[in-house]
């Protein structure tokens, strides 16, 4: 069951990086914080300082560490100025100096000519680049918005989907009362953080709010406290809620795992029928724990069939069990 995917480039302002990493501003052009970042990779400009610019991508943030600084320090003053100006002339988004190293005077002198922000971090180069790339990958990840509820149950991110009025929000509020944490209600923003990871969050303007028919809008954070909400969570499984259809055959064994594909990532899928008398909050708690067990290598249905001496690949499992 693939979700509709949106293929387009995303961007965000440079100011987000300054705020996230508490960078020191050595030079910032007017409105430089609003310049858009659209590339999720970085570059250490050692080869560029040596004069090699083939395949150079000027959309990447440039990160300069001790190695680049030592190389420039060994150059003659005029040569160093020329190499720095050559790099700045490519007008990349920003130059970040790590380890708290001093910026060369030529950089601060030439940066205004090309409008290049010069920033500084106290962290080591490798650690800073690792954190920066993780941040860029998340901010620039492909994404979609899906109508549903995202809640963390026993550490598992559960995306609840279903038609309007089927009881998604009511189930979520019961789960919150039972100690689990709400991430998003009504609109879930889903980002592809990696080839195997999806991260869900809520739009800023409706974060922590829930709509309950007959009551109206409530704020889960204000009612239940800060421990009842989260800003984001991995999506470990999808639960599709639908009204009980007596003519439909529902899976009673759970031998095979069904999947939903979201942004090219396969996520385990459960179809949960809804009817009066079913405690959906408890069912979802059990589903989350069972999903964790499966990830750890244990499948209760297959274990039962093994003990009964029944082939789990058989198409006659239900008749063999006389169910």
Would you kindly provide a written description of the structure presented here, covering whatever features stand out?
With 323 residues, the protein is of the alpha/beta class. It has eleven helices and 17 strands. Strands 14-11-10-8-9-15-17-16 form an eight-stranded mixed beta sheet. The two termini are 28 Å apart.
Main beta sheet: 8 strands, mixed
Beta-strand segment tally: 17
Rg from Cα:
26 Å
If strands are numbered along the chain, what order do they take across the biggest sheet? 14-11-10-8-9-15-17-16
Number of helices: 11
Estimate the global geometry from the Cα principal axes: elongated
Please give the alpha-carbon distance between the first and last residues.
Answer: 28 Å
Element order: H for helix, E for strand: EHEEEHEHHEHEHEEHEEEEHEEEEHHH
Q: Summarize model confidence as the mean pLDDT.
A: 90
- Which percent range describes the beta-strand content? 25-35%
Percent range of helical residues: 25-40%
Outline the low-pLDDT stretches: 1-7
Structural class: alpha/beta
